[in-house]
Amino acid sequence: MTSDEGPCAVSALPQLGTRTLTTTCGAQRFAEGAGALCNLDAAANGERSVIAVGVQRPVWLRGCSSAPSGTLARTKRAILDELFGLLVQDQEDGLALRSTGTHSFLDDLTRAGKIRHYGVSVETVDEALKAIRYPNLETVQIIFNPFRLKPADRFFEEAAAKQVGIIVRVPLASGLLSGKLRRDSVFDPEDHRAFNREGQAFDKGETFSGVPYDLALSAVDDVRPLVPEGWTMAQFALRWILMWDAVSCTIPGARTVAQARENAAAAELPAITPEAMSAVRRIYSTRLAPVVHASW
Ligand SMILES: NC(=O)c1ccc[n+]([C@@H]2O[C@H](COP(=O)([O-])OP(=O)(O)OC[C@H]3O[C@@H](n4cnc5c(N)ncnc54)[C@H](OP(=O)(O)O)[C@@H]3O)[C@@H](O)[C@H]2O)c1
To answer: What are the φ and ψ backbone dihedral angles of 96, each rounded to 5 degrees?
Structure first.
């Protein structure tokens, strides 16, 4: 949540009636993220919300051994649900979670009762397949949406066989799959959609799922007729993701309370028809795969 409404939207989550997983990213923002999350335990439905905390660089991970305690204090919890690290190529450390030191650090935190589970966040299917070789790793966070089908083709079966949970991020292809973006949409200069379309700041696949903007808008128009009456396109995309058994949950980046409510409601919608599932596959295979499939 990045807008002023962010913390309010987080506080609204327990009232949504759906079990929620909320993530915060960045060791340097542990305190900020945890502050926004501290109301979650007031869940009206009595079911605890799950909190996952992200750490973006291995050096931060090592430097932040006291951070889980700080987060625990702010969330008034005795134990964090999940700590996940980004599996990245880091100049100093090599591929972050491939370093035994990092793994044993996470294992130590688990043994000490500070975290329940740990996982990684990856960019590519190849990284995901490497990550699940680690015996204690319990989740992989990966980009998956109607514009990014490779994980379903090459990773989901392996993850399910190892009982590794899949957390789907960027489910709306950075908002494209809400159907509201246009050729002339303007983004805040601080918004990655304004400055990272070509991967200038971080992996290109994080922005619009790596699909060139004009092509993506045209593919969105192909998806539009598949959205059942009474649903929004965002809900269609989220329900489409939940059609895959290997997926544990998805974490849409809602900017407002209304978006958070709409997104949570997608979990209660009926199954998408096989025809619509095939149509999405066709759009991906014919229009997008030639451009993006090899990259992630
Ligand atoms: N490596 C990592 O661990 C990593 C990296 C990136 C992201 N993430 C996490 O992944 C999650 C999603 O990432 P994301 O925010 O980039 O992608 P996303 O969920 O695909 O797109 C989020 C954007 O979609 C729009 N949106 C959301 N719900 C909507 C609705 N119901 N109706 C209309 N528009 C809606 C909003 O755009 P507007 O702002 O235009 O309204 C929002 O900013 C976030 O929780 C983020 O923290 C993790």
So the answer is: -40, -70
Greater model confidence, 142 or 61: 142
Give residue 53 CA to ligand 1 midpoint distance, Å: 16
Residue 26 pLDDT exceeds 60 = no
Q: Which residues line ligand 1 (CB under 6 A)?
A: 23, 25, 54, 86, 121, 141, 169-175, 178, 180, 206, 234, 251-255, 259, 262-263
Domain, as residue range, for 227: 6-292
Q: Residue 20 C-alpha to ligand 1 middle, in angstroms?
A: 15
Residue 287 maps to a domain: yes
CA 131 to chain centre: 16
CA distances from 35 to 57, 118, 253, 291 (A): 21, 21, 18, 40
Question: Which of 79-83, 85-89, 104-108, 174-178 ranks highest by mean pLDDT?
Answer: 174-178
At residue 55 the predicted structure's pLDDT band, cuts being 50, 70 and 90, is low
- Indicate whether 107 belongs to any domain: yes
The CATH number of whichever domain residue 260 belongs to comes to 3.20.20.100
For the CA of 123, the nearest atom of ligand 1: 1
Nearest CA, atom 24, ligand 1: 175
